[in-house]
Amino acid sequence: MNTVMQRMCFAVLFALVTCIRMPSVTMGSNISSTPVPSSDKGVDRVLELHISNFTEVVSRHDFVVIQFYAPWCTHCQRLAPIYEDAAALLEQPSSHIVLAKVDVSDPANEKLEGNVSSPSILIFKSFDEGFHQLTDFEDAKGIKEFLAEASIPSVIWFNKDATQRSYASKVFASHGDDGLVFLFSDHSVLERDAGEDSSYEAMERAYKQAARDYRGRGFRFFVADAENGQKAMEYFGVRPAKQDVPLSVVVLQGKDGKKYKLDNANATNLEAWLRDYFGGRLTEYFKSEVAAENESGSTVRVLVADTFESMVLQSSKNVLLELYAPWCSHCQELLPVLEEVSRSLEATDPDVLIYKMDAIANDVPDSRFQVKDFPTIYLYSAVSKNVIHFDGSVYDRNKQGILSFIHAHKESTSQSAHPTTEASMSTAVTAEESVLSSVNEEL
């Protein structure tokens, strides 16, 4: 689904949301660290902060939402019950979001107020960079969903850290339609020398900045090293780095599923590359296996994404293509059938070639070849360039059924080899008449 901000359309009210990176609290100085007092009523789920406990609360929690209000403010009065209801919705053991409020009309809180006007909401996060966004809420559910969204870092690290894994799980579970941006690198931010200002650190800073800049446009940013990101590398078709060449690759997958790849990514070319993407100037990237030799003894040729255009789209012959998955038992059962079909066609109909392509390890570079299930079979006609899908409800998936499908849809590509046209028939008749005439003359 789309992000919360894309799904929700709130009426304009009054909340200015400002996220500030902790632990730098600059709203006032000489703020004491008195413990948070317990609520007398035990029902107020919004913490009441003041100059005596502000620092202690903000520094103790990873994600603190603070409403700055004044009792006389009508907008604040309207927000109060909504804010309280949102706190109730967020009140669960697994939630790390804390909602609090500060009365800016109290002279003692003057140093906390700073330049903040009421009603305003500030979010203090210990794990992310700050951003500013004008956000409007009409109900508690809207606040809850916005805060759940804001509680996910701009950049998520693919590693063994449980917190990072939980962030990734939230994204893939609740924001499956978002675009994805992955930085694959041999370096790990958790292992690098803190004092070394390397090219990787410059790239990391540029990547984080890009994540903040483009997060509102429906993209999730991830970082994975070669050790912890192997599955993601396989999914995007990113190959391990060659010797003495560090891995630094950025892959973007848009909401439409199309992929784009930046090799040798660095702090200089990343921003320009992203601008080119949003400007529609990038060439689509298709993941591909390395082109390999055909399997020994097999008449079914092996196809990969990199050879798709030359071997299929530019082929002078009809092509029967099977798109398969290595783990699919139906695909495994179909392969010997295709071998039989291929051997039969080699002897009787050389106008047809049979290919197979692993549709898990390779992207299909032509959108007409949709992977509907496994196996999916298409015939690409040589002359008209039509793509015909094999319909299992019409043809049996056996040798005779596949041959019937081919003969029903293939196009002739070598007329001289098959004298079936009017011209060839006329030539044949003329030759026969000539022979008969010669025989009659001899008689």
Strand content: 15-25%
Sheet with the most strands, sense and barrel status? 6 strands, mixed
Helix content: 25-40%
Mean pLDDT: 77
- Which second-level CATH architecture of the largest domain applies? 3-Layer(aba) Sandwich
The domain tally reads 3
How many helical elements?
13
Straight-line N-to-C gap? 88 Å
Q: What is the CATH topology descriptor of the largest domain?
A: Glutaredoxin
Broad shape: elongated
Describe what is shown at a glance.
The protein is an alpha/beta fold. The protein contains 13 helices and 16 strands.
How would you describe this structure to a colleague?
With 443 residues, the protein is α/β, with parallel strands linked by helices. It folds into 3 domains: 1-151, 3-Layer(aba) Sandwich (Glutaredoxin), CATH 3.40.30.10; 153-285, Glutaredoxin (3-Layer(aba) Sandwich), CATH 3.40.30; 301-411, Glutaredoxin (3-Layer(aba) Sandwich). 33% of the residues lie in helices and 19% in strands. The strands form 3 sheets. The protein has a 6-stranded mixed sheet with strand order 2-4-3-5-1-6, sandwiched between helices. A 5-stranded mixed sheet has the order 7-9-8-10-11, sandwiched between helices. Strands 12-14-13-15-16 form a 5-stranded mixed sheet, with helices on one face. Residues 1-42, 130-134, 189-195 and 415-443 have low confidence and may be disordered. Residues 413-443 are annotated as: Disordered. Residues 413-429 have a biased composition (Polar residues). Residues 1-19 form the signal peptide. Its EC number is 5.3.4.1.
